[in-house]
Amino acid sequence: MDDNSSRSLDLKEFLKGLKDYGVLMDKQEATALFLQFDRDGNGTIDFDEFLLTLRPQMSRARQEVVLQAFRKLDRTGDGVVTIEDLRGVYSPKHHPKFQNGEWSEEQVFRSFLDNFDSPNDKDGKVTSEEFLNYYCGVSASIDSDVYFILMMRSAWRL
Q1: Are 10 and 38 in contact (CB under 8 A)?
Q2: Backbone angles phi, psi at 125, to 5 degrees
Q3: Residue 40 sits in the same domain as residue 64
Q4: Looking at the domain assignment, is residue 38 inside a domain?
Q5: Whole-angstrom Cα distance, residue 40 to residue 46?
Q6: Using CA atoms, how far apart are residues 102 and 84, in angstroms rounded to an integer?
Q7: Which of 24, 39, 88, 117 to pair with 71, CA 20 to 30 A apart?
Q8: Largest Cα–Cα separation, the chain
Q9: Is 42 in the same domain as 96?
Q10: Do 102 and 69 share a domain, yes or no?
């Protein structure tokens, strides 16, 4: 659908793409759908917005185990995980780039946080919403609540 290779879709590309793929709806319906995908309201749909809109929501049980992991990381209890929260919970000592001297402890922590941080706002501070967002993506590829919860409990030692 991304005809101009901009890595985002404007309304014109979106409407053309729907037509190309045989999705029959009038322009008003298609525009309303476009607005659902355009989460930041900037007039385009980027890949992350596209995925966020398509993927299913997590069950309440999955959300709760993800929040348990978040609370474990958020040692200060302020609702934001920072490098300071990671000290004593996450050890950078086994990271290959730390072991070979390429990265400092701080760089390892920042890289770890970047996994969960918003793709468009890597500020080194991870909110519970960002953490849930990350795991919503993981959750979409795991069919069973039981398996997802087991994986989370094992990974985070909950």
Answers
A1: no
A2: -130, 120
A3: no
A4: yes
A5: 10
A6: 21
A7: 39
A8: 59
A9: no
A10: yes
Give the span between the Cα atoms of 108 and 101, in whole angstroms: 11
Domain of residue 81, residue span? 60-156
Location of structure tokens 């519970």: 128
pLDDT at 148: 96
Q: What is the dihedral of CA 119, 122, 126, 129, to 10 degrees?
A: -30
For the chain, the DSSP string reads --TT-SSEEEHHHHHHHHHHTT----HHHHHHHHHHH-TT-SSEEEHHHHHHHHSPPPPHHHHHHHHHHHHHH-TT-SSEE-HHHHTTTS-GGG-HHHHTTSS-HHHHHHHHHHTTS-TT---S-EEHHHHHHHHHHHHTT---HHHHHHHHHHHHT-
Q: Is the pLDDT of residue 120 over 80?
A: no
pLDDT of res. 28:
94
In a domain, 146, yes or no: yes
Residue 57 is predicted with a pLDDT of 85
